[in-house]
Design brief:
Blueprint lengths: L5 H6 L5 E2 L5 E2 L21 H15 L3 H16 L3 E4 L5 E3 L3 E5 L6 H8 L1 H37 L5 H11 L12 E2 L4 H7 L6 E6 L3 H4 L9 H13 L3 E5 L3 E5 L3 E8 L1 H8 L2 H6 L5 E4 L15 H19 L13 E5 L1 H16 L11 H4 L2 H16 L5 E2 L1 H23 L5 H14 L6 E2 H7 L7 H13 L3 E6 L2 E5 L4
Helix pairs in contact: 2-3, 2-4, 2-12, 3-4, 3-12, 3-15, 5-6, 5-12, 13-15, 13-16, 15-16, 17-19
């Protein structure tokens, strides 16, 4: 039995009564409240290009509609973020960069969905790689000639200072290598990203259908997590990144944009979305989450229709056009996107949404449990509206009331989704640690397990006495484990002999 299914299997056992030895069995209480069904994703709010593409991809791949919507919206953010920033009603500008996390089980066709959504990105990278190959060859020759000439001037003993200075000035600065043809990366560390970014396009994406590689990777290790979260939050805000390092010196990155879409299995997503460090720092409030119900068991074979294929091609053509027409950027100043303003009626709609959300965050309000995310809901709406506006018209300079209304609908869905997951305790770290311990105990071939073994060999979140004690106590309160001995301290899964 696989570890992450043990708790579910345990719930299927008789809840009470007597075991084979006549011992009274207390009623087992579930760790988590039932998770309410996910609300349907409002695909039509994505507009005729993104919405129809998401619907067609979901039908073609037979994946949850929300997963397809996340994929196309993230790809659109990647393509649009270089073109414009949205001007907020209070005067500040915000990037069109979106961070998205999709939670789905293995087998829910995350990878296939992402492949469809990112086809244009892959084609653009292929074209850039072809150009880069020729440019890199030219650069190696030019750089070799420049280096030889520079060395010749520096080593000429007949030259006086002023003459040498004139010749070096005439020679000019060192030729820069061509920009690497990379638009996306699956699991970059923040430090690695910043160090390499001067030689990469200024608008990038972190996209992976195996998001656990990112959430459990080097950048999210305990000693790096806060620094990584702060760094990605700065990029989401669109602020310059300044680094001072002993070996690398001072690095200042301006005008950079980063979109993100992580597809993660539910257990890994819950651990990531419940991390107190990430929540306190503010990264989680910048993320749009979707955790749709699986449709496995309903995916009978169907042939892709001509209409679906046409909708997907239309979407690919739009994304490729935006990627190809991304504004040129200076390596020092980076991108300088134009300003995308809101029409008067769009701004009125945005203000109404802002006030509606804010009123629900107060004492007794239904959004108070997720007030960190809710506090940024209006900004999420503005960013989404900007992406939709650029997709509809690459030359757009203003967000219409219709597009803002659609963005508000989408953001309302994301807010409701965040609240649904929170109310079902799927992001409660205490319960998640208890579940991890229960799964680990259930997969041990021992009638009883020493508490010292929990500290030494158990799940990482329960390897301190404080956390292990709390997890055991939670499981005992739910009648899922029992303590059978104090010295040595032994625990076992309820009902196990």
């Amino acid at each position: 039995m696989r570890a992450h299914h043990f708790a579910a299997e345990l719930d299927r056992l008789p809840p009470n009564g007597q075991d084979n030895y006549g011992r009274v069995q207390l009623e087992r209480l579930p760790l988590f409240p039932p998770l309410p069904p996910a609300e349907p994703y409002p695909l039509d709010a994505l507009g005729p290009i993104l919405g129809e593409a998401a619907r067609a991809i979901a039908r073609k791949v037979q994946a949850p509609a929300a997963i397809a919507a996340q994929s196309v919206l993230a790809a659109a953010s990647l393509a649009a973020q270089a073109h414009a920033d949205v001007r907020m009603p209070y005067g500040q500008r915000r990037p069109l960069s979106l961070y998205l996390v999709s939670s789905a089980f293995s087998g829910d066709r995350k990878t296939t969905t992402d492949n469809e959504a990112l086809w244009s990105v892959c084609r653009r990278e292929d074209a850039l790689q072809e150009t880069h190959g020729r440019a890199y060859q030219d650069w190696t020759v030019t750089h070799a000639a420049w280096s030889a000439e520079k060395k010749k001037i520096e080593n000429d003993r007949k030259l006086v200072f002023e003459a040498r200075k004139v010749l070096l000035t005439e020679l000019g600065p060192e030729p820069q290598a061509p920009v690497w043809p990379v638009l996306t990366s699956a699991e970059p560390t923040f430090e690695g990203l910043v160090k390499s970014w001067p030689n990469m396009p200024p608008a990038l994406g972190v996209f992976t259908a195996e998001g656990g590689q990112f959430t459990a990777g080097h950048g999210m290790a305990a000693e790096n997590r806060l620094r990584t979260a702060a760094g990605f939050s700065i990029l989401w805000d669109g602020k310059p990144v300044t680094r001072v390092r002993a070996l690398d010196g001072v690095s200042i990155l301006k005008g950079r944009r980063l979109a993100m879409h992580l597809m993660v299995q539910p257990d890994a997503a819950a651990a990531f979305l419940s991390d107190p460090v990430l929540r306190d720092q503010g990264l989680l409030s910048r993320i749009l989450v979707a955790a749709p119900d699986s449709i496995a068991g309903t995916r009978l074979f169907r042939t892709v229709t001509t209409d679906d294929a046409d909708q997907i091609r239309r979407y690919h053509a739009c994304m490729l056009n935006l990627l190809e027409k991304a504004p040129e950027a200076d390596r020092v100043q980076g991108l300088m996107p134009r300003e995308l303003t809101m029409s008067t009626t769009a701004e009125d709609r945005w203000r109404d949404f802002y006030n509606w959300i804010e009123e629900r965050c107060g004492a007794g309000g239904d959004l108070r449990p997720i007030r960190d995310f809710a506090a940024k809901a209006a900004e999420h709406a503005a960013r989404i509206a900007g992406v939709l506006a650029i997709v509809a018209d690459e030359h757009a300079s203003q967000i219409s009331a219709e597009i803002m209304t659609a963005a508000v609908r989408l953001t309302t869905w994301y807010t409701d989704e965040a609240l649904r997951l929170q109310q079902a305790c799927r992001t409660d770290p205490t319960l998640l640690r208890a579940k991890a311990l229960l799964d680990w105990l259930g997969n041990r071939n021992e009638a009883a397990v020493k508490f010292s073994d929990v500290l030494r060999l158990g799940p990482a979140p329960t390897r301190t006495k404080k956390e292990a004690d709390a997890a055991v106590r939670t499981l005992i309160e739910h009648n899922l484990v029992e303590e059978v001995s104090e010295r040595p301290r032994l625990i076992r899964v309820a009902g196990r002999t």
